[in-house]
Amino acid sequence: MLKCHLTNNRPASNLRSLFPRFRHVRPTSFIMTAQLLEEASKKIPVPQVLINVVSRRVRQLSAGHRPLVETTPRMGFSDIALTEIIQGKLAYEDAPPEEKHPQ
């Protein structure tokens, strides 16, 4: 039985039951995504912003936009988006503060 390298070292079969949407994903995919997430969080340290940037890019990729980095057949859209952030191909800007008009 394969052990997954998460903090609790649960067997991969237990992880698949906890995350039913990811039944088709191999345990090594969890490790790769966790490593990518850790590296990307060094570029965008605010978790909410990182999630929004990745989410928006995943929507673009699923709509047919081309990746900005070299990909492998096993990479999902979120892996591609995280890799783009890590390589500096994808960034974000803070929105300017809204002006309050006196009433």
**What separation lies between the terminal Cα atoms?**
67 Å
Oligomer: single chain
**What proportion of the residues is helical, as a percent range?**
40-55%
What is the percentage of strand-forming residues? under 5%
Rg calculated over all Cα atoms: 17 Å
Order of helices and strands: HHHH
Structural class: mainly alpha
Largest beta sheet, briefly?
Answer: none
Mean pLDDT: 77
Number of alpha- plus pi-helical segments: 4
Number of strands: 0
Question: What is the 3D shape?
Answer: elongated
Low-pLDDT windows of residues: 1-16
Protein architecture, described:
The chain has 103 residues and is mainly α. It has a domain at 28-86. Helices cover 49% and strands 0% of the residues. The protein contains 4 helices and no strands. It has helices at 12-18, 27-43, 47-62, 77-86. The longest helix is centred in the middle third of the chain and has 17 residues, at 27-43. It is elongated. Residues 1-16 have low confidence and may be disordered.
